[in-house]
Specification:
The structure holds two protein chains of two kinds. Chain A is mainly beta. Helices cover 8% and strands 38% of the residues of chain A. In chain A, the strands form four sheets. In chain A, strands 10, 12, 14, 16, 17, 19, 21, 23, 25, 27, 29, 31, 32 and 33 form a 14-stranded mixed β-sheet that branches. An eight-stranded mixed β-sheet of chain A has the order 4-3-7-8-1-2-6-5, with no helix packed on it. An eight-stranded mixed β-sheet of chain A has the order 13-11-15-9-18-20-22-24, with no helix packed on it. Chain A is elongated. By secondary structure, chain B is α+β, with helices and mostly antiparallel strands. Chain B has one helix and five strands, in the order βββββα. In chain B, the strands form two sheets. Chain B has a three-stranded antiparallel β-sheet. A two-stranded antiparallel ribbon of chain B has the order 1-4. The chains are: A mainly beta, B alpha+beta. The interface between A and B is medium-sized, with 19 and 18 residues.
């Protein structure tokens, strides 16, 4: 009997097949997922390796693990089937058994939001969109589109939105939930406008669950009433980001920055949980943040061109000891954690002025005189009533403050000045 | 000009009616009625009476 002694040359990363898997993965030509098969990640190699199985690769979608159901080879193409479909703008990453990763090119265009019945379900929601090319929205079984605001005419499960102007339709979700499948999310350029709600849904009307980061070609998003929004606001939004509905179930959860070129911001709901820590867009011309869960935190000046200013909420933490923007024309500051200690309110023509709760420590009489004097000397007009709270000597203002108030009233034609605790 | 200290509630009847619920010294014109109240109920009664 002969004895043969074999001397191998197995490399690191090389399995029993003798293949150097790290080197093989490095030959990967492309990784894509497409609209026709949104569960299928297609990995193209110069040549196939049929010994590779579904267990040799993992995937994440938007950073969350997504199961691999199966995998198959056809020539040099390895098709890895995910447990559920990829949607528009999802970030898909696959990790090979060697630990090497590849970001998948996501060509999926569809995105599916979710409608949920509220109350009786008999209410009608109004939907307005503008698109750059025709798209279709298809509803699940429990919801229907209508051509009239009463929700009775031309019932349909689909709405084809034609490009051009803002288009309007109405819908009801009468039972449970219903899918709201957008055929090509990339074509939405306005969901509402500066003058019209994009989603208007009040008593007994549907709530829409929507990841607004998917609207990454939209320049306007405006909702009123029942919404359950997630995701950071896309950078594309410039005209208006408005989420309104303090009397409804109007929620948005985001800790991300606002769109960098945004002009108008309007957040008005006690269920909007906006928790970004950092500056707001320098382009803002109007900003309204009102809500108990808004926890924007920032130390520094407001955008220089901002005119309309409402900051109202127990968890807003804006700190600044400089001027308000020069053309401030509407001002409400009301928040227990806000600490604006500046003494200059700008020079714009002002239609409303209320510093209800705007600083942590109380203002001294000396500072009050400085503020009142600046307001007296400012260029712009002031409203008939002015309120300035957080004043230490509110109960017995000294003579110099009374004089400054009288001068302000006489100079600017103000009827009432309230100096409060 | 008149100066009114309201420790709890005040109703100021200027161009528009304004209700304060915060300790405040009010500086307003002599012809502007200012009423001071201790409780919200008193304010509500006052406002209800106004609408009758």
């Amino acid at each position: 009997m002969g004895i043969r002694i074999g001397i191998g040359s197995l490399k690191i990363g090389q399995g029993s097949t003798g293949v150097d898997w790290s080197s093989y993965w490095a030959t990967l030509i492309s990784a894509t997922v497409g609209n026709a098969a949104p569960t299928d990640v297609v990995l193209t190699f110069p040549s196939g390796q049929p010994s590779l199985l579904a267990t040799d690769i993992t995937a994440t979608v938007n950073g969350v693990a997504r199961g691999v159901s199966s995998a198959s080879w056809a020539g040099g193409v390895w098709t890895v089937v995910l447990a559920s479909a990829v949607e528009y703008a999802d970030v898909v990453v696959v990790t090979f058994k060697t630990g090497q990763t590849k970001t998948v090119t996501n060509n999926v265009l569809t995105y599916t939001a979710l409608l949920t019945k509220t109350g009786t379900g008999g209410g009608v929601s109004t939907l307005r969109m503008q698109v750059s090319s025709n798209i279709t929205i298809t509803l699940g079984a429990n919801a229907k589109f209508y051509s009239d605001a009463g929700g009775t005419a031309n019932e349909s499960a689909t709405w084809t939105i034609t490009s051009g102007a803002l288009r309007t339709i109405y819908l009801k979700c009468t039972t449970g939930t219903a899918t709201f499948a957008i055929s090509d999310c990339s074509k939405i350029i306005r969901w509402g406008s500066t003058s019209s709600e994009g989603w208007d849904s009040r008593e007994n009307s549907a709530s829409i669950g929507l990841n607004i980061s998917k609207l990454n070609n939209a320049i306007c998003l405006r909702t009123f009433g029942n919404v359950a929004l997630t995701g950071d606001a896309p950078a594309s939004i410039t005209e208006l980001l408005r989420i309104d509905g303090i009397a409804y179930n109007t929620s948005w959860i985001s800790n991300g920055p606002l769109p960098p070129n945004l002009l108008n911001l309007y957040l008005n709901s006690n269920q909007v949980a906006y928790g970004y820590n950092g500056p707001i867009p320098a382009t803002l011309q109007s900003m309204h943040m009102q809500g108990a869960l808004i926890a924007w935190k920032y130390t520094g000046a407001l955008p220089v061109n901002n005119g309309y200013l409402v900051l109202s909420g127990a968890n807003i933490e804006w700190t600044h000891n400089g001027n308000l923007p020069n053309n401030t024309s509407y001002c409400i500051i009301d928040g227990a954690k806000i600490n604006w200690t500046g003494l200059n309110v700008g020079n714009g023509n002002s239609s409303w002025f209320s510093l209800s709760n705007y600083r942590i420590s109380k203002m001294s009489s000396a500072d009050m005189v400085t503020l009142l004097t600046q307001m007296t000397g400012r260029t712009g007009t002031l409203p008939a009533t002015i309120t300035i709270n957080d004043y230490a000597d509110y109960a017995s203002p000294p003579a110099e403050v009374v004089t400054a108030v009288n001068t302000l009233k006489a100079t600017k034609g103000i009827t009432t000045v309230n100096l409060g605790a | 000009m008149k100066q009114v200290l309201a420790m709890n509630y005040a109703v100021i009847e200027a161009e528009e009616i304004m209700i304060l619920n915060h300790p405040t010294t009010i500086f307003t014109n002599d012809d502007v009625p200012v009423s001071v109240y201790d409780t919200e109920d008193e304010v509500n009664y006052r406002c209800t009476d106004e609408t009758k």
